[in-house]
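I have been asked to look over a protein record a colleague put together. What it holds is a sequence and that sequence's fold in token form. Please read both lines and tell me whether the tokens look consistent with the sequence. I do not need a full report, just your reasoning and any doubts. This is what I was given:
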Amino acid sequence: MSKKENKMVTIWLIVVAVLIMGLVVFGGFVRLTRSGLSIVEWNPISGVVPPVGQQAWETEFAKYQETPEFQKVNATMTLEEYKEIFYLEYIHRLIARFAGLIVAIPLLYFLIKGIIPWRKSAVYVLIGLMFGFQGWLGWYMVSSGLVNNPAVSHYRLTFHLLTALLLLGLTVWMALQHLSGFPKRVPGAVKSTPFILSLTLLVVLILQIAYGGFMAGLKAGHVSNTYPLMFGVLVPPGMLTIVEPWWLNLVSASTTVHFIHRWFAIVVLAVSIILYYLTRKRGYSRQLHQSIILMVGLVGVQILLGALTVWFFVPTWIALVHQATALLLFVTTIFINYRVLHEPVTAAEGVPTELEPTTA
């Protein structure tokens, strides 16, 4: 792969990563405005065109009127009010369709032209397939809110979010590979304490984001508008006895999920700080040290945003900034893991060694 071709693939990967992040945040906006259940059918092709004419709109509105959300939440909604939430979900789906083309067309070009050799194409094809799978998974999530309850399954919502994170992480990792010239992995790095701790940071962050998904699906942010206390106490009683069996409370009881999400953030912060002190005196590059400092700072900002979201009873713009910051934290953690795994160090002298590229 020539330098020019490598640059093309790198730009494509970065654009895909930005698209994923944008779609996640916009999806959060759609959810917060209760617009996600406004379109009750999944028509990947014909759905590109919105209803045209009064009759078409009345037909579409009639379908929505049969849903639990209309009957239990929006029974007084007019056609004009319905158009507002319809267009938000329509724009969401339209952006996703165009994003799919931006993923698929360059990928096909790279494969046909041999810029990405077929023998090395598996990970790139996987990115394309996963992007398409996300579209179906989005509908699978939405369909859960069209049957009995006027809300999507929080399990499906969280699964949709986690697969988006997996796709984002894979895309960012490959972009880093191209940017750094496919460096060799440092011998023994996988078993090193810094990498184990950076991997631990990634795991606890993903778990925290998963609980953010549970929070969103259960609307658990509305359970309490005080912080750090909940209902006037630090630890609400009976959090494991709301539903049976007891362990189900950990993932389905709003109060319990809210409590875990607000305090598990401290675990993420603690692991970030420990990683900083562990790597500070070692011969890692300034870039890696700065990324860990950024991580610690972002976690602090995220905790503040979480508190503000609770205090002001989940205002849309704060909730969206909170969600976007979670994505920045995830990307930063991917970068930290990548650097620790590929960055040779001279611990005794404290002098970093440059990454050693290989042929892409």
Q: What stands out?
A: Confidence is low (pLDDT under 50) at residues 347-354. Residues 183-360 form one domain. The chain is about 65% helix and 0% strand. The first strand starts at residue 345 and ends at 346.
